[in-house]
């Protein structure tokens, strides 16, 4: 079925409410991306069809939202946002995904690009040895079930307690590095066992560690608030809850399928199995999501401190000179307060491949960031820019305070692996001044820059729509891949 999108602006489009949709869809993208989305409707895997299906779920509020980096995902499109009424709405496994709280941490350093470029080989070698990466990689922490339970409850704070980081890191992590409501009993023994040796590991796929420099400050005042400036060396860490998060997703697909049948919930497709938020199954799933989120916070906290140790060895820095700018996830479901039709409401906001992007004045932001809003960390590719954006009042109104999380895939991993050769990608990036350390050449091919949308195009659409504002652009110097 051809879905007719109505333009609301150059980068904002309406998917009208039809059929079983309870609300309309709102798509944020430039005209060229819209044309690609519409051309994909003939395929079995259509992002627009997924937006329509999400809009058909019980209790959804205002609209099913797709951001400029949207592409098909499991259940929800990646780059999707949906908020649900706490009494009438549902918790959806496909609205969070399997890498719960996958996200990015940004670290700043006192070093400049010229200071680092001459030592980039030594730094890259040290990071490659120090930060475990790759499929099934094992970390330096060996945890028992009891210790895993502490990770699931306390998140990044547990890592700090184990001397991986500093207490001041916690103020600069979403939710303070600890999501409330986590219950280890809601997480299976198998999920915990799979995480015994994975806290402090990067993993594989699209996860990465990048040494970058700040190429341009679009908003020097906001950048100064975040403690970053042009020419500065920073580090981005992109990873999530590893095997534990994936197992939680697998476990709850089965539980939610039974719950959907039990409560008579009409499911547009099986990937959207769900349970009422205010049901034993819904509450249990959200407790497991919070636990998975805390695992991801702890994982990035440990890796951040391993990165610090490399900078100490290579450049003789004090550990506290490598500062956490911010840490934020882009796969989660959280209860938040938002204004809808002039009234404040508590809603369960699902963000799948979408970053929380709260604008100025929200108490959830660190106090020193509150006047501008917290950073929104947007990854590009190994060969392109990344961005630090911030939230806006328009975004708070239109997207439940959500922003883009990356470039968004243009090719599946399978297609990318057929089109690109890992060694060739590494060679081409080296010629462009970007050094790559990778555990898998196939993984490099799957993550080749050409496998993704143009990050500049995606960011421009978000800014044009007013939902995000640009702060700085980052460029990679060294990349660690699984």
What fraction of the residues are assigned to beta strands by DSSP?
A: 25-35%
* Tally of distinct domains: 1
Number of helices: 15
What is the terminal-to-terminal distance?
40 Å
From the alpha-carbon coordinates, what is the Rg to the nearest angstrom?
21 Å
Descriptors:
alpha+beta; seven-stranded mixed sheet; 25% strand; 15 helices; 33% helix; tRNA-splicing ligase RtcB; eight-stranded mixed sheet; single chain; globular; 19 strands; 482 residues
Task: Describe the overall structure.
- This protein has 482 residues and is α+β, with helices and mostly antiparallel strands.
- It has a single domain (103-410, 452-481), classed as tRNA-splicing ligase RtcB (Alpha-Beta Complex).
- Helix content is 33%, strand content 25%.
- The chain contains 15 helices and 19 strands.
- The chain has helices at 31-39, 47-54, 113-117, 120-130, 145-154, 156-161, 189-193, 220-226, 242-262, 280-315, 393-398, 413-419, 422-431, 441-446, 455-465; strands at 6-9, 12-15, 25-28, 64-71, 78-85, 90-92, 103-112, 208-217, 232-239, 274-276, 323-329, 331-340, 343-352, 355-356, 375-378, 386-391, 402-403, 435-438, 468-481.
- Strand 1 (6-9) and strand 2 (12-15) form a beta hairpin.
- Helix 4 crosses helix 10 (280-315), helix 5 packs across helix 10 and helix 9 runs antiparallel to helix 10.
- The mean pLDDT is 96.
């Amino acid at each position: 079925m051809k879905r007719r999108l109505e333009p609301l602006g150059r980068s904002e489009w309406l998917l009208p409410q039809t059929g079983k949709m309870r609300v309309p869809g709102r798509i944020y993208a430039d005209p060229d991306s819209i044309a690609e989305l519409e051309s994909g409707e003939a395929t079995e895997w259509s992002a627009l069809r997924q937006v329509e299906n999400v809009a058909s779920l019980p209790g959804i509020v205002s609209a099913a939202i797709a951001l400029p980096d949207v592409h098909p995902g499991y259940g929800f499109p990646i780059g999707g946002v949906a908020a649900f009424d706490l009494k009438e709405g549902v918790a959806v496994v496909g609205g969070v995904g399997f890498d719960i709280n996958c996200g990015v941490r940004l670290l700043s350093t006192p070093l400049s690009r010229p200071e680092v470029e001459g030592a980039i080989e030594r730094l890259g070698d040290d990071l490659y040895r120090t930060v475990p990466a790759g499929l099934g990689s094992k970390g330096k922490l060996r945890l028992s079930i009891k210790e895993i339970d502490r990770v699931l409850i306390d998140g990044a704070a547990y890592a700090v307690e184990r001397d991986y980081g500093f207490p001041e890191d916690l103020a600069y992590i979403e939710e303070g590095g600890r999501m409330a409501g986590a219950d280890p009993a809601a997480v299976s023994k198998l999920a915990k066992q799979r995480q015994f040796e994975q806290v402090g590991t990067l993993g594989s796929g699209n996860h990465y560690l990048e040494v970058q420099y700040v190429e341009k400050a679009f908003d020097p005042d906001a950048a100064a608030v975040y403690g970053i400036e042009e020419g500065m060396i920073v580090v981005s860490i992109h990873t999530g809850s590893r095997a534990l998060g994936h197992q939680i997703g697998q476990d709850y697909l089965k539980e939610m399928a039974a719950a959907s049948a039990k409560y008579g919930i009409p499911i547009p497709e099986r990937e959207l199995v769900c349970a009422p938020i205010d049901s034993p199954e819904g509450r249990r799933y959200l407790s497991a999501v919070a636990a998975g989120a805390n695992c991801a916070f702890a994982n990035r906290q440990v890796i951040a401190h391993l990165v610090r140790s490399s900078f100490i060895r290579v450049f003789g820095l004090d550990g506290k000179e490598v500062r956490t700018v911010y840490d934020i996830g882009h796969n989660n479901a959280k209860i938040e307060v938002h204004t809808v039709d002039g009234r404040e409401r508590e809603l369960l906001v699902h963000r799948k491949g979408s970053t929380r992007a709260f604008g100025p004045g929200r108490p959830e932001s660190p106090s020193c960031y509150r006047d501008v809003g917290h950073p929104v960390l947007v990854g590009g590719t190994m060969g392109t820019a990344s961005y630090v954006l911030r939230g806006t009042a328009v975004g708070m109104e239109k997207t439940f305070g959500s922003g883009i999380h990356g470039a968004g895939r243009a090719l599946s991993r399978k297609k990318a692996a057929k089109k690109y050769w890992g060694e060739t990608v590494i060679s081409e990036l080296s010629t462009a001044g970007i050094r790559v350390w990778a555990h898998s050449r196939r993984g490099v091919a799957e993550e080749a820059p050409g496998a993704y949308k143009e990050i500049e195009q995606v960011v421009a659409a978000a800014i044009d729509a007013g939902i995000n504002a640009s702060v700085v652009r980052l460029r990679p110097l060294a990349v660690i891949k699984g």
